[in-house]
TrEMBL record:
This is Probable butyrate:acetyl-CoA coenzyme A-transferase. Pathway: Lipid metabolism; butanoate metabolism. Coiled coil: none annotated. Keywords: Cytoplasm, Fatty acid metabolism, Lipid metabolism, Transferase. One of its GO terms (biological process) is acetate metabolic process.
Length: 447
């Protein structure tokens, strides 16, 4: 088939935004996929149908705002929005009662859609069609293909700003698998710069660096602490590091520009930095655009613990909100307030633990201040109603600015002792008393 044939097919499927969203019916499940895959024009067109539609449910993931269908209907009589993993904007929707979190682990993303979920319509942004009739999922590759395969109707919105990302598989969709195409002008993506690392972030990063060896492969999350780690690794003597991560951020770009990221010694995908989704600056998107040194894969591959475990010296670094003296980790919520999501933390805890020479770190500052300025310990005696992200049976290394401890194979008293040792000094005596009351503190424990 020739390019002219694909162009004719393209013209045949081209619709206005209003025509495209007319296929949505009462009670439908509609998917927006993830991050930059959000269909900006189609979202606004669907929101305009609010008064004629009822009980339409929308799913998304790490989407920045605004989301028109959520903002236009506080009654949720017409539209109800759900997120697999909350961005800062989606968190604000949760706070307003306009978003519902879907508990999940990322390596099961494809299975959820293949076996359990209904998708009446999927709407997503893709890059412009190439001469072979393919549209690239771009930084949305981690989640897009399984959703599209499950959908009754597929609508793509052409976004001229999306980088074209090379992939391992399922990074593209062919025009023959698309029902409708929508065009329109888009604003350039905002330069999403990460917050500057704090002194505590830098201290934690400095404590973790000695555990990383030359040739290690890294998975690091997004935020100020991972950003600090990227800075410090870029300034370190480490060399020939690899990337295998669900979320590619500017921390990896910093390592690459410093000559630290070569992917030279990975056991799988050698020579390529692997990721599922990407969120960051315009420089990051320029770096991954048509770059043969990176490959996007679905999260069913990137986050599968068996795949992660095949990579020697796999180092996973994530963060959390709190931990209790038993080693349970709360990383996605503060009490019952949804902050983010389980994401891939549990996937990489299991996978990195199975890696030869692998290590999995969960990091946090030892304390935080509430809205009234009161200081609280992030190490709690025992969770009571908190949502647990990672069970105590899976937690490996925990780090604060006061040290790094390994909980693998440790008994309850050993865990309590280790966690007290990295708590803020102002809270250690109180935590010891709480441990004694729970009979997880030996009389001979150090004080």
């Amino acid at each position: 088939m020739t390019y002219e044939y694909f162009l004719e097919e393209y013209r045949r499927k081209l619709r206005t935004p209003e025509e495209a969203v007319s296929v949505v019916k009462d009670g439908d499940w509609v998917d927006y996929t993830c991050s930059l895959g959000k269909p900006e024009i189609l979202d606004r067109a669907l929101a305009k149908r609010r008064d004629e539609l009822f009980d339409v449910k929308i799913r998304g993931n790490l989407i920045s705002g605004p989301i028109a269908v959520a903002e236009c209907d506080e009654s949720q009589e017409h539209f109800t929005y759900h997120s697999w993993h909350c961005s800062a904007y989606e968190r604000s929707l949760c706070d307003r009662g306009l978003c519902y979190y879907i508990p999940m682990v990322f390596h099961n993303n494809a299975a959820y859609y293949e076996y359990f979920l209904k998708v009446n319509v999927v709407m997503l942004s893709v890059s412009p069609m190439d001469r072979h009739g393919y549209f690239n999922y771009s930084v949305n590759t981690g989640v897009a293909a399984p959703i599209v395969r499950a959908a009754d109707i597929v609508i793509v919105e052409i976004n001229e700003n999306l980088p074209k990302v090379r992939g391992g598989y399922d990074e593209c969709i062919h025009i023959s698998d698309i029902d409708y195409i929508v065009e329109g002008e888009h604003e350039p993506y905002p330069d999403m710069l990460m917050p500057e690392p704090t002194a505590v972030d830098r201290k934690i990063a400095e404590l973790i660096i000695p555990y990383i060896v030359d040739g290690a492969t890294l998975q690091i999350g997004i935020g100020s602490m991972p950003n600090a780690l990227g800075d410090i690794i870029a300034e370190s003597d480490l060399k020939d590091l690899g990337m295998h991560t669900e979320l590619c951020s500017d921390a990896y770009l910093k390592m690459y520009l410093a000559g630290k990221l070569t992917n030279k010694y990975k056991q799988i995908d050698r020579g390529k930095g692997v990721f599922g989704c990407a969120v960051g600056s315009r420089n990051l998107y320029d770096w991954i655009d048509d770059n043969p040194g990176v490959a996007a894969y679905p999260l069913e591959y990137v986050n599968r613990p068996g795949v992660i475990g095949e990579i020697d010296n796999m180092v996973s670094i994530n963060s959390c909100v709190a931990v209790d003296l038993y080693g349970q980790v709360a990383a996605e919520s503060a009490g019952v307030r949804q902050i983010s999501g389980t994401g891939g933390q549990l996937d990489f805890l299991v996978g990195a633990s199975a890696s030869k020479g692998g290590k999995a770190f969960i990091c946090m500052s030892s304390v935080y201040k509430d809205s009234k300025g009161v200081v609280h310990s992030r190490i709690h005696p025992q969770f009571n109603g908190d949502i647990v992200t990672s069970p105590r049976s899976q937690v490996y290394f925990l780090a604060t600015e006061y040290g790094v401890v390994n909980l693998e194979g440790r008994s309850t008293w050993e865990r309590a002792e280790a966690l007290v040792s990295i708590a803020h000094p102002d809270f250690r005596d109180e935590l010891i008393r709480e441990a004694e009351a729970r009979k997880i503190w030996r009389r001979s424990n150090r004080r």
